[in-house]
Amino acid sequence: MKTLIVYRTHHGTTEYLAEVLKQKLDGEVDTVNLKKNSSPQLEEYSSVIIGGSIHAGSVQKSIKKFCSQNSEILKSKKLGLYLCCMEEGETATKQFIEAFPEDLREKSVANGLLGGQLLIEKMNFFEKGIIKKIANIENSVSKIDEPAMEKFVLKFNSEK
Asked: Given 74, 112, 114, 131, which is the most exposed site by the fewest CB atoms within 10 A?
């Protein structure tokens, strides 16, 4: 089984989690950042995982575009979806629902809300100002959900 993890990241958390998943998943796994390659060759993969993050309230447009443009081929693959966000509970669930199309969510064998990070050192001046004002934080914060990541990996690996 050959798996492709397609992701888009702003400050590196989604990429970091893609690399962690790559190490934990069964079989051969490749990763592609949509910022660097917006049209990866999906035909050679039996499985695809799509990862995005919430930035300024919604998932990256490139994730939505990728899902839309590749919907049919994605539905023919073993599919996993994960989202990085700082929210929890109903808000995080709503963000996940808005991030990925319903048909792909229903087809997916593993869905994950894997937590997130606010990496102040990787933000531009404008982003730092907004985060400091809205979230009232001065330093980077990590809320990566390790148990959710392990559950995602177990679920994805167990599905054939």
From this structure: 131
